[in-house]
Amino acid sequence: MTFSTPMTFNNLLVTQEGNTCLITINRADKLNALNIETLQEIKIAVEEANRNETVRIIFLTGAGDKAFAAGADIAEFADFTVEEGTKMAAGGHEVMNTIEQSAKPVIALVNGFALGGGCELAMACHIRIASENARFGQPEINLGLVPGYAGTQRLCQLVGKSKAIEMLITGDPVKANDALQLGLCTQVVPLAELKEAAQKLAAKLSGKSFTAMASILALVNACYAESTDGFELEIEAFGKRFQTPDFVEGTNAFLEKRAADFPGN
Ligand code: COA
Asked: Does ligand 1 come within 6 angstroms of the Cβ of 88?
């Protein structure tokens, strides 16, 4: 893939090809450990990709062939006070929520270790494609810590309470194929084929209605937000579709037995 480079960051490479934005955590020598600046940059990059009308799909990956992200940066937080630790977790939650609430799909390409904050970052994404060498885990217990970027919550949502508790209190990571069985990722491919798998998914998604997709992402999030009634929201969202050009095109295309060419509104 050849990408142009529209944005520059200290810890990320952010590039765009067609309607696809690729965010790469660029700290390979530290296994892409997530210091606070890196997390803030990820938030800015996702927000910017959402603002950019030419971007439809966002991929997130780690530089190198060893790690997606090996966790929060232990060297950075080793001396933190209670106040600093609390602030760090609150800031991390904001970043994860920004990703989860993105109106454009954010897809993690998990190219190795996704541990601690790296696993939490991957779990905040809408879909995870893993390479065969990927490892998912929450090893915070080994540091006398608990996950701080919503790992205790999203792991339960994805793999169920019992397996989540086992992973959280043993700290043991799971291999890519086990993650697939658990629903932690949707696909496992050889590392060398990860970009190709991303391109295939991007090509498939590119033909869809992006307004319907944004609505689906919001409705799925509502399923996990206790204060919102996702059932009611779905009824409302379904009705609203009938006034959209994408709906008119989609139904007309079906009835005329041709592929839909969604106008995107
Ligand atoms: N924070 C800060 N630095 C990290 C890091 C993290 N979470 N994970 C890895 N690194 C750094 C290492 O300190 C090392 O830096 P150095 O070369 O300057 O010493 C470099 O990345 C390579 O890591 P290394 O441990 O030598 O690689 P490895 O292949 O032997 O082991 C891991 C890989 C992932 C098993 C190991 O790095 C590890 O356990 N990392 C911490 C995982 C963790 O606990 N994450 C949760 C944090 S809350």
From this structure: no
